[in-house]
Design brief:
By secondary structure, the protein is an alpha/beta fold. The protein is built from four helices and six strands; from the N terminus they run E-E-H-E-H-E-H-H-E-E. A four-stranded mixed beta sheet has the order 1-4-2-3, with helices on one face. Helix 1 packs antiparallel against helix 4.
Length: about 140
C-alpha cells in the first residue's frame, strides 16, 4: 500500500482516490475497501476507485494499491493532511481496510479490547462534585 498526498495546479481540485493496476482481483478489492474506509473517515469528495499503470502498482510481486489521501493544494483538504488527529483517523481507516480485506477482527493497537461475553468492569462514577461513593452501573448488551 502506497499512501500519498495529491497535488494539482488548480486549487479547487479536492478529494480522495485510490488506484490499482487493474479493475478486478485482489488489489482492486483492497483498493475499494481503502476508498470506502477513507470516505467514511474523512468525508472528502469521493474521486473514486481507479486503475493506473504506476510503477508502484506495476513493478511489484504482490497485489498493490496507491491511495491519494487528499490534495495538498486545496485548503480544506490540506487541513486534514496537516492535522495529527485526522492523520490518525486515516491510519485507522487504512488498518480497517486491511483487516476487512484479510477477514481480521477489527482492532486498533493501543486501544483496549471490548470484553467478550459477561465480565466485570471496574470504574469510578463521578458527578460535578467528584466521586460518587457506593454508585453502581449496570450494562445491558
Amino acid at each position: 500500500m502506497s499512501i500519498h498526498s495529491n497535488a494539482f495546479g488548480d486549487p479547487s481540485a479536492n478529494g480522495t482516490e485510490t488506484f490499482s493496476l487493474v479493475g478486478t482481483g485482489t488489489a482492486a478489492q483492497l483498493r475499494n475497501l481503502v476508498q470506502n474506509e477513507m470516505i467514511s473517515a474523512w468525508g472528502l469528495t469521493n474521486r473514486g476507485n481507479k486503475t493506473a499503470n504506476f510503477a508502484v502498482l506495476r513493478d511489484t510481486a504482490a497485489p498493490a494499491v496507491l491511495h491519494e489521501l487528499a490534495f495538498i493544494t486545496n485548503a480544506p483538504d490540506a487541513q486534514k493532511l496537516g492535522s495529527p488527529t485526522e492523520r490518525q483517523k486515516a491510519a485507522v481507516a487504512h488498518l480497517r481496510a486491511i483487516q476487512r480485506h484479510y477477514n481480521i477482527a477489527p482492532y486498533v493497537p493501543g486501544t483496549p479490547t471490548q470484553p467478550a461475553g459477561e465480565g466485570t468492569i471496574t470504574a469510578r462514577v463521578l458527578d460535578d462534585l467528584g466521586p460518587v461513593a457506593g454508585a453502581t452501573v449496570e450494562l445491558d448488551d
